[in-house]
Amino acid sequence: MIFELIALSIVLAYVGAVCFALDDKKADTLMLPLLWSSTIFQVIAGILFYSSPSTIHMKLLVSKSLGEIYGFIIDSTSIFTALVVSSAGAIFLTYAVRYMDDKNLGHPHRNQKGRFYGWMMIFLGSTLAFIYSSTILQMLIFFELMSLACWGVVGFYGSKKSERSALKALLIPNFGAVVGFYTAVAFGFKYGDFGLGFLGNLPENEKLILFICLMIAAFTKSAQFPFYSWIPDAMVAPTPASAFLHGAAMVEMGVYLLIRVVQSMNPPKETFYPMAAILSLTMIISILAYPKQTDAKRLLAYSTIAECAIMYIGVAAAVLGHPVGIKIALFQLMNHAYLKGLAFLTAGAFTYYYGTLDMTKIRGLKETPILGYGWAISLLGLAGLPPFGIFFSKLYLFLNAGPLYNSPLGTLLLALVLMDSVVLLAVGLRSINLMVFSEGSRKKVDAIVKGALVGLILLSLVSAYMGYFTLEVI
Amino acid sequence: MLFALLFIIASIIGLIKREQVKIVGLLSALASLALVVEALSGIDATYSILGLEFAFMTDTISRYFCILVGISGLAVSLYTAEYMEPRHLNLAAYSVFILSMALIVLSRDFLEFIIFWELMTIASYVLIVTYYDNTETKKASIIYLVAMHAFNTAPLLLAIGAIYSQFGTLDYSTLQGVYVPTWVIWAFLLGFISKAGIFPVHFWLPEAHPVAPSNVSALLSGTMLKMAIYGMIRVVELFPGSEAIARTMVVLAILTIAIGAIMALVQKDIKRLMAYSSVDNMGYLFLALGAYIMLDRVLKKIAFLALLLHAFNHLVFKNLLFMLSGNVLHATGRKDLELRGLGKKMPFTAVMSVVGILSVSAVPPLNGFISKWLIYQATFLSKDPLLVGGGVISLFASALTLAAYIKIYRIFTGEPNVEAHEAAPLMLAGEAILAFLCVVAGIFPGIIARIINVDVGNPWLISIGGATFNALLFAGTLCSFIIAAAIALPTKKNLDAPWTTGEPVDEFEQKPEHMFTPIAKFGKKLSFIGERIEERFSSFERWYSSKDLGYLDEIMFMPVIKLIEGTSYVIKELSKNLNALLAVTFLVLFTIVLTMAVLAGVI
After folding, report:
1. pLDDT 10s digits, B69-127
2. pLDDT at residue B456 is higher than 70
3. For residue B199, what is the DSSP state?
4. CA distances (Å), origin A398, targets A356, A412, B208
5. Percent of residues in chain A assigned helix, strand, coil, to nearest 5
């Protein structure tokens, strides 16, 4: 039953690709039911799974010479991530119904909804299929499909800047995929098995090589050092796409990939050092970049990079052998998705109602309470203040970073996490003072936008609790 | 835990109905009263809410601090019911603020501690930005929250994380007496001195406390700073090895006392003066705590009693003083020291100000005297030169405090220069409770000592002498009283009228900034240092904003891409001329064959 629901939700997401051929109104009427039924099936599958948790491994395509080629793994990791992706996607795409119309001050759209929904539904379907993948080949296929959808939305507006950014957003993760996945598939051919399980059966030196290659793949996807510049440039995408791809789903799929690899492979402990070094450099880049940003979405892009680095710290702890490292990463994934989504959707409301994303030009958000609270809550929540989710996931990280306290590189990582949240808090407070606590005019915010923002605020308040239950953290 | 329920109801009402100040204030007062009553009889409750387990219990220290939070909550909430202006979320944040402080004290493990600690910080931020239209408030709020996050949250998170990683538990009873790494205790010290406003992390206090509404300033100065002391006492009681930090704590405390007292003297704003005076008093508390760690036997008990008694006293009189400044602000719209003659229209405020000022200046028979006297006892009678030096400086600082508060008292004397009216009855009621406690705790300090179960005999007997008579202390205290009396009592009036050729005579009045000039010069130098640091910081920020960071990865791969682009351009141009293309192709093929032949070893 669970498998059928999940398969149905993925298929429904892909059916949404029909929207390419439809005009605005028809696209809305087709996309919304498909989207919400996909999400509801996913949620029902999740509830069924958690009521009696047991791993299901469905092998759909098995060949004699190459072993399993296509299959689904339904375990707590994949259900958890899929629930986050589905719920976030549902809210963001519903928001897009309002955002992608012609009353958008910054980007008035005419008849472009079909194209947008097409790319986003392809992306949703690919992400869900990636999450449930059980073989390396399948992961490669859907990884690249996700990159394709990213190219589609980043280049959506067709300007020269968009095209350049879209090309960067396609080629850099593609380079990572080539380095990581093609190597993995090559190993798969050598050993005659594509399933994730074969990763654990490799000899130690091959594990080292393969882990480094797959780590490069994950890091390019999540825009870690040194391949980070595609994300700030990718902010030319329409904001619901930025929220979904760069806030809640695509960059986090890099983390998911590495989680699956660590779970199947048990990589050698030496891989901690390159990983930790790259993560430290990533956080330093974010810290240096925060105070210079004047564009709201670019600030959020750098914050995404840093928060993904925090998720990877959990994976690094798992590499060192800590049993709850994966849980740290997943807990942070859930809490981050909703808060980052709130931040991006509020930034989208800036484009929609103010026509600009320039933080030095927007004033008087206190006159429109939903925007004032949304922006303040998202910035304070991202810096790690309670009662919002990221405080609890950072607390969980610090409580469970056991082996990291004993190594100097690990302590450096933890100190950088704290420094990053302090600098983000300072920049966020400066922005709140400038934008929220100033004089301006009141904007009438539409019901869909308001509903999306309120929903995300509520979700960010309960996400820590939901994560606690589904992961049994603490 | 009835009080928690009442606070939660108050905050929900504050969230839904943003204008109901009176209801929220009165409910919070009721809840604080419930807290005091329940704490006196002891609290031991475990709750399982939605699968999460919370345990709250009182032991000697936490019971005492619960009562402290309850008393200040009661008085300030009565005051708030008439005073506070509801804005954005501050009404809900008010109840959450007091509740989180109570729960910090009642927590039984570090996890609950850090969660409620952070809730307290964010609630205090929401309350501080009540008057967000003001530029100073915006600046102060950033300084406050970033300083707290950097110097308070960060060290506490690291310390608590390290403890959990090493011992697998955060429960106080399990951690009693375990040996933690020394850096953890240093991290705790840094975290708690930042929250308490000890030098060098004191800079946020004089910014944040004046810009908040007066009831919030009262809670911030009076109660929130005591949470830092509670945390430090808890850490010192749990983990052996606090001797490592004791001397540093005492040195920092002494510096804080000196800086706080001197800077208080040069302020022109009532609330900023009182904020610096809070810095000064927190220095006293940490001096007492350091003495407690360093001394033993009788003096250790005296230091402990001094610490807890001074925590109570400072809470009571600082809350009172800030609320009274709120009276003045509410009535006149001003909080500077140029005001005059308010005593005529605001008699109750003037009388309670006298009580508050005498308490903070440690004049008997009010409560400030006995706790400071015990601190002097503990420091002077110890054989440690650092502590004795600390005692001398704290004596001097007491005199400076009296001088500073004389400046405040002057606003009630003389002829009125503004319109004023007495404060509302509920506001006066809250203040009256605290003024009454000042007098009672001054005359019967034994009541407080009995709550803590510290047995030092009769505190008064120790002070009078017997075996513990100390000539230096006696002489010093006598001198400071004489100086205080000389400053406070009015000088002989010059009754001769000045001779003018019939022109009107202005009554000469010394301006506040010209009082106590020899000391005030030091204060000006100190504030100059502070300004220079701020200047350096903003020039660094300006320099940094002007620098343009490129994309690091583009620096890496753009040259390669440009090379490929260039090559393809050259080939494209070549292809326009067929002869040139054929020639280049032939050359390239020949080069490839030649290279392969060389590599294959043929040539």
Report:
1. 999 999 999 999 988 888 888 889 999 999 999 999 999 989 999 999 999 999 999 99
2. no
3. T
4. 38, 13, 29
5. 75, 5, 20
Question: ∠B91-B94-B100 over CA atoms, to 5°?
Answer: 145
Q: Are B220 and B101 in contact (CB under 8 A)?
A: no
Q: How confident is the model at residue B557 (pLDDT cuts 50, 70, 90)?
A: confident
DSSP state, residue B506: P
The helix (run of H) or strand (run of E) holding residue B490 is: none
Rounded to the nearest angstrom, the gap between the alpha carbon of residue A209 and the centroid of all alpha carbons in its chain is 26
Could you tell me if residue A266 is left (phi over 0), alpha (psi between -120 and 50 degrees) or otherwise beta? left
Contact A199, A215 (CB under 8 A): no
Q: What is the pTM of this model?
A: 0.90
DSSP conformation letters of B534-562:
HHHHHHHHHHHHHS----HHHHHHHHHHH
Report CA dihedral (B443, B449, B455, B459) to the nearest 10 degrees: -20
Q: Quick one: pLDDT band at residue B343, thresholds 50, 70, 90?
A: confident
A338 token code pair: 């909703």
Cα distances (Å, whole numbers) of residue B163 to A335, B112, B174: 25, 14, 12
Per the CB < 8 A criterion, the answer to whether B157 and A440 are in contact is no
Nearest by CB to B161, which of A225, A380, A401?
A: A401
CB neighbours of B113 closer than 8 A, spacing ≥ 6?
B104, B107, B160, B231
Please identify which residue in the block is written with the tokens 């192709």: B585
Check if the interface score ipTM surpasses 0.95: no
Q: Report residue A392 as tokens.
A: 């609890």
- Kindly report, residue by residue over A421-470, the tens digit of the pLDDT: 999 999 999 999 999 998 888 989 989 999 999 999 999 999 988 888 88
Mean pLDDT calculated for residue range B208-233: 93
Nearest CA among A192, A208, A222 for reference residue A261: A208
Chain B closest-CA separation from residue A424 CA (Å) = 10
pLDDT of amino acid B214: 92
CA-based diameter of chain A, in Å? 70
CA distance B156 to A228: 31
**Residue A244 · residue A120 · CB < 8 Å:** yes
**Cβ of B165 and A387 within 8 Å?**
no
**Min Cα separation A30/chain B (Å):** 38
Q: Do the chains contact at A398 and B115, CB–CB below 8 Å? A: no
What is the DSSP code (8-state) at residue B493?
P
- pLDDT at B466 (0 to 100): 36
**Residue found under tokens 């030649």:** B594
Facing residue for A386 by CB, picked from B118, B544, B556 = B118
- How far apart CA A237 and CA B89 sit, in angstroms, is 34
